[in-house]
Structure to design on (625 residues):
């Protein structure tokens, strides 16, 4: 049984078919990358898994269970964490608070106890803090703990968002363009982190990425999409050599003739 | 320059950020307790009124400042608290210490009833919906005349506690201490919420619903909880207000009160508990300050008691405009800047508090 399975998933916005009959399976312990030109439906697939959109047809299964009868806020509880293409951090809060929100699904205290801040709540807070500190150590975020997101540079925000997803302690991590807008050095850091997330933490990674050097460096399997349809699936080299993929990116001779 | 050395996670979890804060707030508390010996009866009454406004402000601050939900109808929950409190005392003979929390619970329940149908509303639409509730509540008070006394109003009985009777005119000192105790308790509860997962989930809903959801925060439940707690605190403030004014009717809780509450927390500093107190100080002491200045000017010019109609609201409006233009974080935000300047002297930079505009904020899925 695969960790995550998409089966004939279709999504339409009015007359536009954003995702057209897409099926794939992510195996446990691998790094799986989705590539494709803009508007290919990569982020839409992420939003389908996060239950922000309801698919028109098809089924999405995580560990054999269908996600379609789950509410969006239950997805994190199942062990799926995600980042966003356009960074959706809690701007008016510190890095530490952002990471601690990632621990929300591990929360055992109830609101009434929290109002009185019982000793149990305090113990829980320390437990969460320890878990978050491990993420901070992993991602080298120590200098930014108390800093507010609103004042942080773009590169650091990207890392904080990855940290927040890791604080969930997920089984599956969805990374939406982890290297977009980053410098070459920062992209290299991201590549090392993804390797470590896979090997040291044992977390399966599904990512959308445009930077082909990063994709070929870290991913075990790649799926190429264009106009919501699957073009090719396989190792990074196989997909990059696939004529249909080259056609989608560069255009075919026919297309040139027509134009 | 001050460097804080933290030795355990408790230092970050504590009520106060560090010993200096604890010292200053304790000093403030001591002064607040000793206040009846320092000022006259009239000023003490004003301070009591300030406490009531601060509690109401804390209620609204939790909702607007920390959960990011607008409300233009909080006077309705003041009314729920004030009326239910008196009804519990008059009809069931409950003591104040029981009727006040019960009144808070009633207001919290009312807030929940409002929150459930409005969970999908955002921004201006939520403001309009809550404003409608604020306007409706005035009429409802009139319609429920058998209980509320309608337009002729209702009398709040004296508070009886441990054989002592509390009344604004007979025993303002006792009333002040009682209200101070309530304020401090609510303040601690509020601070506890902010340093626990509940407060963080409020902030998450405020800053990005989409990623709060992805973190496992149930948006509808969190928003309903925020409304309930906010309205509960406001209800307690309503109960306090009822006893303070002695008699009240539908006019006491009109839409102007709701708007004043919202303006108060904006002037004080939105997103800070201290902002509620700063706003309350402005609201209560501005009229005093104006009459004080007026007396001085009259004394200098030798003029008779000159009065300018609408001067108070004019000055308050000017303050509001100035705050929005020059200091979006309100009076408390300004104080934070001044404090940071001295803490870091001479390393303060001009744009230290400037928020970097984030780019790439397209594709927001609402």
């Amino acid at each position: 049984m695969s960790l995550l399975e998409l089966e004939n998933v279709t999504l339409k916005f009015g007359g536009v078919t954003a995702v057209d009959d897409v099926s794939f399976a992510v195996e446990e312990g691998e790094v799986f990358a989705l590539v494709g030109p803009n508007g290919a439906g990569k982020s839409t697939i992420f939003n389908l898994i996060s239950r922000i959109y309801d698919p028109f047809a098809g089924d999405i299964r995580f560990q054999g269970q269908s996600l379609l009868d789950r509410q969006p806020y239950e997805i994190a509880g199942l062990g799926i964490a995600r980042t966003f293409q356009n960074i959706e951090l809690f701007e008016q809060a510190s890095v530490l608070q952002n990471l601690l929100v990632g621990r929300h699904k591990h929360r055992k205290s109830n609101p009434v106890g929290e109002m009185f801040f019982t000793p149990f709540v305090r113990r829980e807070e320390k437990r969460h803090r320890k878990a978050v500190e491990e993420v901070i150590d992993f991602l080298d975020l120590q200098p930014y703990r108390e800093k507010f997101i609103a004042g942080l540079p773009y590169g650091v925000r990207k890392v904080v968002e990855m940290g927040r997803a890791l604080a969930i302690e997920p089984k599956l991590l969805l990374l939406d363009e982890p290297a977009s807008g980053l410098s070459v050095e920062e992209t290299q850091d991201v590549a090392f982190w993804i390797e470590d997330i896979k090997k040291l933490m044992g977390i399966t990674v599904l990512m959308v990425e445009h930077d082909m050097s990063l994709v070929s460096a870290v991913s075990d399997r790649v799926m190429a999409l264009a106009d919501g349809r699957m073009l090719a699936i396989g190792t990074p080299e196989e997909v990059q050599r696939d004529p249909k993929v080259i056609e989608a990116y560069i255009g075919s001779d026919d297309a040139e003739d027509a134009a | 320059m001050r460097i804080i050395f933290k030795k355990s996670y408790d230092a970050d979890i504590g009520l106060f950020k560090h010993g200096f804060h604890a010292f200053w707030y304790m000093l403030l508390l001591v002064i607040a307790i000793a206040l009846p010996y320092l000022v006259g009866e009239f000023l003490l009454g004003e301070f009591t009124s300030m406490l009531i406004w601060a509690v109401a402000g804390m209620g609204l601050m939790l909702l607007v400042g920390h959960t990011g939900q607008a409300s233009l109808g909080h006077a309705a929950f003041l009314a729920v608290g004030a009326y239910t409190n008196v009804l519990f005392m008059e009809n069931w003979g409950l003591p104040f210490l029981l009727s006040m929390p019960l009144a808070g619970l009633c207001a919290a329940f009312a807030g929940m009833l409002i929150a459930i149908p409005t969970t999908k509303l955002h921004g201006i639409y939520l403001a309009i919906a809550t404003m409608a509730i604020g306007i409706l509540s005035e009429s409802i008070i009139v319609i429920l005349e058998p209980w509320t006394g309608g337009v002729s109003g209702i009398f709040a009985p004296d508070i009886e506690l441990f054989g002592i009777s509390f009344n604004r005119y007979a025993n303002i000192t006792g009333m002040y201490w009682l209200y101070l105790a309530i304020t401090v308790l609510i303040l601690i509860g509020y601070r506890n919420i902010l340093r626990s997962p509940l407060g963080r989930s409020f902030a998450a809903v405020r800053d990005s619903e989409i990623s709060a959801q992805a973190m496992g925060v149930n948006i509808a439940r969190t928003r309903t909880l925020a409304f309930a707690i906010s309205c509960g605190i406001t209800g307690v403030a309503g109960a306090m207000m009822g006893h303070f004014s002695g008699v009240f009717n539908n006019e006491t809780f009109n839409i102007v009160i709701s708007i004043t509450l919202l303006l108060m927390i904006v002037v004080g500093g939105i997103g800070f508990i201290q902002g509620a107190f700063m706003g309350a100080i402005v609201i209560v002491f501005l009229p005093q300050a104006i009459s004080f200045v007026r007396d001085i000017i009259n004394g200098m010019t030798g003029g008779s008691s000159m009065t300018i109609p609408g001067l108070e609201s004019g000055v308050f409006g000017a303050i509001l405009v100035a705050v929005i233009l020059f200091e979006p974080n309100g009076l408390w935000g300004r104080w934070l800047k001044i404090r940071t300047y001295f803490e870091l002297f001479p390393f303060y930079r001009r744009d230290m508090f400037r928020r970097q505009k984030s780019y790439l904020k397209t594709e927001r899925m609402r």
User: Anything to note?
Assistant: Strands of chain B lie at 154-155, 159-161, 164-166, 247-248. Chain B touches chain A at residues 9-10, 12-13, 189, 192-193, 195-201, 203-204, 206-208, 210-219, 225, 229, 271, 354-356, 358-365 (CB under 8 Å). The two ends of chain B are 45 Å apart (CA to CA). The longest helix of chain B spans residues 273-301.
